Amino acid sequence: MKKAKTVYVCQECGYESPKWMGQCICGAWNAMAEEKVLPVDSRRDSRSRTVVEDSGSGISRPRVKAAPLSEVQSGNFSRVDTGIGELNRVLGGGLVKGSLTLISGEPGIGKSTIIIQAASNIAERYGRVLYVSGEESEEQIKMRGDRVCKGNLSNLFILAETNMENIIQITEELKPEFIIIDSIQTMYSAELESAPGSVSQVRACGNELMKMGKVKNIPIFIVAHVTKSGDLAGPKIVEHLVDCVLNFTGERNQELRILRCFKNRFGNTSEIGAFEMMEEGLVEIENLSKTFLEGMEDGAEGAIATAVYEGTRPLILEIQALTAPTNIGFARRTAIGIDNNRLNMLLAVLERKAGLSLINQDVYVNVVGGLRPEGTSTDLAAVLAIYSSYKGMAASHRTLALGEIGLTGDLRSVQNCEKIIKEASRMGFSRIILPKKNAQAIKEPPQKVQLVGVSHIREAIAAFSGK
């Protein structure tokens, strides 16, 4: 029988080396950990879904059979309703049977809360649900369930276990409709000698969960830790294994929580879900634009509304800017919600194409509400907010600006502009500054809404200041 061999595995990227290395090929220092790899038995293949015994040699071989694509049932017809509309929106309409969904977020952000709420709804509608916890006791989960779950919890089964072999055995006996693993970093397989959370253990446990979900057609939710920088902890192999990657963001001292999808094999990756953390759990926010604009004041300097299109819905939000004389040799450029490199580019365009010198001014830009919008449609609003703060010019809370700014100072059109204008009209905006191409493409604008089409940053500033 072959002996187990020793390898050194990078805990950052998963690279394996027969010898210890001070620096991995990924650039990480002192990340190599010693792990033992057991030899694979050629007489059994645990990765195969179907195994048949060969009468001639007595060796089990996988039964391989190809199926026509036309006969394969689409996953769109077998989705599981989680009972949470915003979660269904981010997932693309619900959980696909046999899919693996990875959810991450900072500690205390609400991952376990939204998971147990979804588990309670699925247990009440579809049948048994297995909640596997490697971090909390059964009593702690019970206390949370009594606080946030409203339905009957008789079909929600709790298992405080970290051994994958025991979890698989319980799954065979219970036959649940939905499985939750909290968290993947605490699970381990007895076949490996490495510690839980290591690259080998995470890879092995992820493979076992994937095989169990695909073979038995069970949707599985996996919770993962995050690093200090907010990135997903562990090797990238986890993200490649799963079908959907969700990230829960928000400030723990505020109620707003944003659920964003980074990978989805069954839906759109640009969808977001909005929740509010209350005493009874996470509550869905139906009118997210109203939430972002609640504190917007009329006549405030350096504040203007803008819009982005996230997934299948437009969002109206507020951008604030502040300029102040610098007290040191180098002016500060700070942005929250906008890429800092993008802000530096916009400031350079302002100085070169609009004649606004900010070399001796500290500039601060903030997207109110903690949202980090995708795309470049907020460029014009950021520029006008900076101009308003620098000139001390009050902006109307009924004015909205959107558009992408190029290095030449020209304004480029944005997508889904017609839907954004309809949403702005519904929210009470009466004046919209937008690229001229978008304004010309709209044949019938909403009543009581003035569309101001501009083609250059100087025209936008003139329209904003009323010159």
UniProtKB/TrEMBL annotation:
InterPro entries: AAA+_ATPase (IPR003593), DNA_repair_RadA (IPR004504), P-loop_NTPase (IPR027417), RecA_ATP-bd (IPR020588), Ribosomal_Su5_D2-typ_SF (IPR020568), Ribsml_uS5_D2-typ_fold_subgr (IPR014721), Rubredoxin_2 (IPR041166). One of its GO terms (molecular function) is ATP-dependent DNA damage sensor activity. GO terms for biological process: recombinational repair. Residues 42-52 have a biased composition (Basic and acidic residues). It holds the Pfam family ChlI. Keywords: ATP-binding, DNA damage, DNA repair, DNA-binding, Hydrolase, Metal-binding, Nucleotide-binding, Stress response, Zinc, Zinc-finger. Residues 76-226 form the RecA family profile domain. Residues 362-467 are annotated as: Lon-protease-like. SMART domains: AAA (SM00382). ATP binds at residues 105-112. One of its GO terms (cellular component) is cytosol. Residues 42-61 are annotated as: Disordered. The keyword ATP-binding applies. The keyword ATP-binding applies. A motif (RadA KNRFG motif) lies at residues 263-267. The middle region has homology to RecA with ATPase motifs including the RadA KNRFG motif, while the C-terminus is homologous to Lon protease. Belongs to the RecA family. RadA subfamily. DNA-dependent ATPase involved in processing of recombination intermediates, plays a role in repairing DNA breaks. Stimulates the branch migration of RecA-mediated strand transfer reactions, allowing the 3' invading strand to extend heteroduplex DNA faster. Binds ssDNA in the presence of ADP but not other nucleotides, has ATPase activity that is stimulated by ssDNA and various branched DNA structures, but inhibited by SSB. Does not have RecA's homology-searching function. This is DNA repair protein RadA. It comes from Aminipila butyrica. The lineage of its organism: Bacteria, Bacillati, Bacillota, Clostridia, Peptostreptococcales.
